[in-house]
Design brief:
Elements lengths: L28 E5 L11 E5 L4 H10 L3 E6 L7
Antiparallel strand pairs: 1-2, 1-3
């Protein structure tokens, strides 16, 4: 159930680790994105980011037109 209306895939409580390659730091941010060639317009995939990698991951997704929104991990639905 998407209580906050973000449309984001749920994340596991035990998997709040940064999605940046090689980073194992605790994630504080959820980057919501969507590849319009693969996903319906309302679908939001989630990459997790530590504070050090947030900007890099947002730029990576943004350059491809995928980035939609960044929220704190406390706002993400848990699996």
């Amino acid at each position: 159930m998407d209580v906050l209306g973000l449309g984001a895939d749920p994340v596991a409580d035990d998997a709040l680790v940064c999605s940046a390659k090689g980073c194992r730091d605790e994630a504080h941010w959820g980057l919501l994105w969507n590849n319009p060639k693969l996903h319906t317009p309302e679908r939001r995939k989630v990459w997790l980011a530590c504070s050090d990698h947030r900007d890099h991951l947002e730029r990576f997704l943004g350059a491809r037109g995928f980035w939609k929104q960044t929220v704190g991990v406390d706002e993400l639905e848990r699996a």
